[in-house]
Amino acid sequence: MKVKGIYIAFEGVVGCGKTTQSKILAEKLGAVWTKEPGGDEISNEIRRVVQGMKFETEMDAVCEQYLYAASRAQTLRKVIKPVLDAGGIVVADRSVFTSMAYQGFGRNLGIDRVLKINKEAVEGIWPDLVIWLDTDLDTALSRTRDASGDKFESMDKKFFQKVRKGYLKEMKKYPKLVKKVDGNGTIDVVEKRVWKVVQQRSA
Predict the structure, then answer these.
(1) Backbone dihedral region of 123: left (phi > 0), alpha (psi from -120 to 50 degrees) or beta?
(2) Domains of the chain, with CATH numbers?
(3) pLDDT at residue 133 above 90?
């Protein structure tokens, strides 16, 4: 009998601690860790174009969303799905929920348009559990950032207020899938909160 794998995604604004916590959880579970955008050479190159390169003209929000969807399509099919099909566990730093918050609200594209663009990219490969690290915005934005490698890390507080509003609104629509975790506190403290959620989900 074929055993279905488990796909866990971490979400939140920049500086919320999701990269650190997702790597810790992946190590605990013996899981494959990946990220969005990125994951293999093709999706990593799309990441470089959409987040790390500077252009003379501003990238249109629709163009930006299609690039993210393209990277997501590649990562889901070439990195995540093979692990799940083999009965393994994947822990991902970001998922389609990022686009819902960042492009849907931060870039004002709206949720319907974001989901329409991502429909074929995702094609039913949704996380089994989304851990949303809700961290105080001032705290998150004060943490070490990589403005030269990620254009979103140079955005102002107003932008991230819209993003957080998006998370607050959209996450409520998926109560069985999304678990909100307090991202404030030390790495060890947040790690224990995350682990409690994972244990409850697997019980």
Answers:
(1) left
(2) 6-202 (3.40.50.300)
(3) yes
